[in-house]
Amino acid sequence: MNCLITIYDMHLTDGETERSETVTNAVIEGSAERYTVEYREQTEEMKDCLTRITVTGGKCVEIVREGSYSTSMKIEEGRHNLCSYSTPVGNILMGIYATKVVSDFYGGRLNNLELMYKIDVENQMISRNRIKILTDYKN
User: Fold this and answer.
1) Planar angle of CA 65, 67, 68, nearest 5 degrees
2) How many CB atoms lie within 10 A of CB 82?
3) What's the pLDDT tens digit per position in 113-136?
4) Is the pTM of this model over 0.85?
5) Whole-angstrom distance, CA of residue 6 vs CA of residue 3
6) What does R_g of the chain's alpha carbons equal in angstroms?
């Protein structure tokens, strides 16, 4: 199903908070047990990237990005996972520890997806992150 999504993104790095808000078209398919959200990145830096978020069981989230910034991240509440983040200047191996995953999908529609997680590189915490996705279905 096509819809508009609003992505609220917050990163806390070295005591500095960075926030952004992006509105974009997305395709959402699936059921409460397993669904995907797919959209094109809107920032100038990532304009050629396609992002696909797959949520399984409401608590396991996989984010796959294809393009100049490629990644495959697995975010599970209470678990530490490793991922590779590819940029135009090289690859970074990161750890991701999710403290909160909230998925509100019912009636065939995603209403809210919220992720809170920490990123570490070589066991040193780099940032605390929060992503919240809200949908706007136009009939």
Assistant:
1) 115
2) 11
3) 999 999 999 889 999 999 999 998
4) yes
5) 10
6) 15
